[in-house]
Amino acid sequence: MQDIEITKLENYGDTRGALYNIPDTDMQFLDKIQNIHFGKICPGSIRGNHYHYQSKEMLIIGYLDTWTLAWAKKDSDEISKKEFTESGAVLVKINEGVVHSVKNNGDKELEIIALSNRIFSKENPDTISRILLQ
After folding, report:
1. Helix (H), strand (E) at residue 51
2. How far apart are CA 53 and CA 42, in angstroms?
3. CA 110, CA 64: separation in Å to the nearest integer?
4. Is the residue at 23 inside a domain?
5. Helix ranges restricted to H, the chain
6. What's the pTM value of the predicted model, to 2 decimals?
7. Domain-located, residue 80
């Protein structure tokens, strides 16, 4: 696998609303899920701008407007970016040591679910800050 892998998720929804499924083959990326957290990213806001030195992470991002994903190897000055528009959902698999950042460029909130193979600990964090997006 590359540093990150981005998969556009298929919408299986109907008139009740959108519905997305994460294939089992993608869930195996984490081996064992130790942490799940979820939230929203307000218009103009950024989450991430960090990397994890001991854990892998999967992001599930639901969107109704424009946003940007940026990533880089922790020791590299080369930054990759991908912009998303319209609406949908993506799965982003991120290896340890890969800096990642999500910026909401649109007018509607992004919904984000993050899964990790490491237990969250404020006393022993696994996050190193590095700014990719401002």
Report:
1. strand 46-52
2. 27
3. 7
4. no
5. 24-27
6. 0.94
7. yes
User: For residue 129, which amino acid is it?
Assistant: S
- Render each residue's pLDDT in the chain as its tens digit; 134 residues: 578 999 999 999 999 999 999 998 999 999 999 999 999 999 999 999 999 999 999 999 999 999 999 999 999 999 999 999 999 999 999 999 999 999 999 999 999 999 999 998 888 889 999 999 99
Whether 58 and 34 have beta carbons less than 8 Å apart is answered as: no
Give a yes or no: residue 77 inside a domain.
yes
Q: How many domains does the chain have?
A: 1
Task: Supply the CATH number for residue 91's domain.
Answer: 2.60.120.10
Question: Domain containing 53: what range?
Answer: 4-11+31-129
Rounded Cα–Cα distance for residues 100 and 56 (Å)? 12
